[in-house]
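From the pipeline queue, job 12 of 40. The input is one protein chain; the requested action is below.

Action: predict structure.
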Amino acid sequence: MTAPLKSIEGTGDIAATMAEIGRRARAAARVLALAPTAQKDRALAGMARAIRASTARILAANAEDLAEARKAAATGAFLDRLTLTEARIEAIAAGIEVVQGLKDPVGAEIDAWTRPNGLRIARVRVPLGVIGIIYESRPNVTADAGALSLKSGNAAILRGGSDSTRSSRAIHAALEQGLTEAGLPAAAIQLVPTRDRAAVGLMLAGLDGNIDVIVPRGGKSLVARVQSEARVPVFAHLEGNCHVYVDGAASLDMAKTIVLNAKMRRTGVCGAAETLLVDRACAATHLKPLVQMLLDAGCEVRGDEAARTTDARVKAAAEEDWATEYLDAIIAARVVDGVAGAIEHIEGHGSHHTDAIVTDDAATADKFLAEVDSAIVLHNASTQFADGGEFGFGAEIGIATGRLHARGPVGVDQLTTFKYRIRGNGQIRP
């Protein structure tokens, strides 16, 4: 087994090292594509054990990352995304175990049929190959992406954010331990050993054809760079400008519960609500309680004229507020003309990520779910359910907002493609 690559900070060997990472990943992908489920599951179980055993080391590394981020005056939302606790580390380990328990997609027969000439054609799931994951500030993505890639038979090249370098390295060491214990190549999950942004450019160029797909998980600037420069397919995850629409037939109590959770449970996640839309039909009874609830919870509200009349603390919304992903305790609020007005607003300002309606009217809910063109649409539930774990995927590499191949949470099934296996008994084509 080849030795792990060491940090190359300041050595000038970035291109050579990245090329070697690509070659190792391709070789590992060939092994993983044929690895039995039991072996992959042993590796995942070992990873979860190693994560738990490494809790103190991971927390110490995370403390250094946090100290550096605080010196750089990082925002509260950024620090929340970066922070690891014992509970969050346990959640990382438990998430790996959930992935372990998922059905192995590799080799699964999606469909099969027999032609009149006797040929039996089967469409079968196979791994994508080598997945490059580029992400920012969330060290838990190191484990999520590594585990999902392994379960789906793919090799992974991980390039985490420079702000979470120490945390990601500590987590990655536990992943490597699980791979080694199960007899799988350590190169199956590699962490890019440099903060230099040149490594990202090399990944986007495909590492000499050794990367099959790129998954960006981060802010708008990262995704824009990936989409602009990538020479390999991309699972696009655009910003999460998520909406909650409170319909005229909504229960106020339910609306308050859902809106508060959607905005304030964790403000820095991509499923956090960024805009509150209230039906003009219930604005007289619902708007003020919802706005004041958010203000009292410590959320800044930027509203239209109707929202500003409810409380002097509401700031005037600028046009750009309707299209902003705050990732902070800030929300835009406006009144719209029914579900049609809500759909029009979301179409004009949304990011096709996650949007929710609160209503007791089934027909209105059906219209919203059918016509809002987002990867995830919800009825009477918080937008914070936009999460692979909540979908039963164990974890996610990201939430794809495009339309090709994968959409919504990207889990093990979405990390496979398919091929056709055809069995005959001597047929030739006339």
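Job complete. The chain is about 40% helix and 20% strand.
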